[in-house]
Design a protein that fits this description.
binds alpha-D-glucopyranose; 15 strands; eight-stranded parallel sheet
Length: about 475
């Protein structure tokens, strides 16, 4: 095997490491300076691809490729996740097959009863656009093993079962009609395929199942034009070598040179996928928080634990503040219609995004974060204070080390008066009632990039007179 081959493969395995750091996310503050340092993963690549002209050139090329492929995604910030399949007809969460140990025959009967109305995804795509979401990721196959797309590899797929047509095709058309980027979720774990579990211990079964899996991925990467995201999920029970994940990614990039892939086929891929919580990856590494609107990904009729629009906005703000994306899930009903509470929350978020979207889409990494009633984003030297519990009259920020030049309410541009000393910025004369709902944004023009240091306040605030 020649050197070039080794390093190419290693890079694919490492795909998503820190290589694109500087290009992918603007890193300006000293606080994030360590992002410029090579991380251990990068060192790993370097040792596999011997340092020398060729290795370095290849790394630079890979970094440039990732920066190019991910540009739209970093700008998009907000996406819609869709979990839809046979489980939707059972109305008890997408894990119902395993969590209730439903016999395979009994479960398969539901595939015949899955009869969604034509072009249901059109309403999802419209809703996504209204909500300010710029891409969609839909389950092409979840753990249940049912393929929402057409394939020659199994009859357990939408055109040959209840739906009688290719649901992925309808989804792709719908997303494109609304100008949204198109992502495919694909579960490697499969509770239906005869080899899906025994592949763990039986090498012949593993070979068959890996060929089946690669074949299905080949189908979804070949039959729908340009696809923007491949979102692998649950790799149980195999590891990356057993899945032949490098070969898998190589095939994917061959078929879709501009695609981005996540890290759930046990390789790093292009981005990390924190689930149900907001957590930045190491500096320079792209990440996306995925989250449900209630406690279920697939439709669960009785799950009424809905997040409010305020919670969704707070999460979105926290993601983009730390350089991440937010992929928010809907679980359509078996007929494809979106549950009412999901529609309402997304519409409310969309209204807010119309007035405040610039503070999300154009945001840079923001170091300011401490408050008990606000979260922050930043564009250049402008700090956006997103007040979610409006206290009335005044709000204050502790330890802002940067001079504020002016402040205004983002909604109507009204000037906000303020005082500032070394420890505190106090924005005064505010209305008693929150001017915007569910979150009010105040824009503070600063003299340079806003930086907060609350430890400075704790240490140095005068304690005279005590
Ligand atoms: C988990 C669940 C799965 C869901 C996924 C979304 O892996 O198993 O049901 O699709 O999270 O991130």
């Amino acid at each position: 095997m020649d050197k070039k081959k080794i390093s190419r493969r290693t890079l694919l395995r490492q795909s998503g490491a820190t290589l694109a750091a500087a290009a992918a996310i603007p890193l300006s503050s000293a606080i994030f300076a360590d992002a410029q340092q090579p991380s251990s993963t990068l060192a790993g690549v370097q040792s596999a691809a011997p340092p020398g002209q060729n290795g370095q050139e290849e790394q630079a090329a890979e970094a440039a490729s990732r920066a190019r492929r991910m540009q739209w995604w970093h700008a998009a910030k907000f996406g819609m996740f869709i979990h839809w399949g046979v489980y939707s007809t059972i109305e008890r969460h997408e894990w119902v097959m395993e969590n209730e140990a439903i016999p395979i025959e009994e479960y398969m009967a539901h595939a015949k009863l899955f009869k969604p109305k034509p072009n249901a995804p059109r309403a999802w795509a419209r809703l996504a656009r209204e909500a300010g979401q710029r891409y969609m990721v839909m389950t092409t196959k979840h753990h249940e093993g049912f393929c929402n797309f057409n394939t020659q590899h199994t009859t357990y797929c939408a055109p040959k079962q209840g739906p009688g047509r290719d649901l992925v095709h309808e989804y792709v058309e719908a997303a494109r009609a609304e100008g949204l980027r198109v992502g495919f979720y694909y579960s490697l774990m499969d509770w239906h395929h005869p080899d899906g579990a025994r592949c763990e211990t039986d090498e012949d079964a593993r070979k068959r199942f890996v060929e089946y899996t690669h074949g299905l991925i080949h189908d979804i990467m070949s039959n729908y034009g340009k696809i923007d995201v491949l979102w692998y999920d649950v790799a149980w029970p195999l590891n990356a070598d057993q899945w032949e994940s490098e070969r898998m990614n190589q095939m994917v990039f061959q078929l879709q040179p501009d695609i981005i892939v996540n890290n759930r086929n046990k390789l790093l891929g292009d981005f990390s996928t924190p689930e149900q919580h907001v957590q930045a990856a190491e500096a320079g590494r792209a990440w996306e928080t995925c989250m449900t609107l209630n406690d279920s990904w697939g439709y669960q009729a009785a799950d009424d634990n809905w997040k409010s629009a305020k919670t969704v906005i707070r999460n979105l703000v926290s993601c983009v503040r730390d350089g991440g994306n937010y992929l928010l899930n809907i679980g359509p009903k078996p007929d494809g219609s979106v549950p009412e509470p999901e529609v309402n929350v997304l519409r409310e978020v969309g209204q807010w995004m119309k007035r405040n979207g610039q503070t999300i889409y154009e945001s840079d990494l923001c170091q300011v974060r401490r408050s008990s009633y606000a979260t922050f984003t930043r564009t250049g030297n402008t700090l956006y204070m997103h007040v979610y519990f409006w206290p009335g009259d005044y709000v204050a920020i502790s330890g802002l080390m940067t001079g504020v030049k002016s402040a205004r309410l983002l909604g109507d541009g009204r000037k906000v008066n303020f005082t500032q000393n070394r420890f505190q910025v106090k924005l005064v004369g505010l209305p008693r009632e929150a001017p915007d709902h569910p979150v009010t944004t105040i824009a503070l023009e600063c003299e340079s990039e806003p930086i907060q240091d609350t430890l400075f306040v704790r240490r140095n605030k005068p304690r005279d007179g005590v």
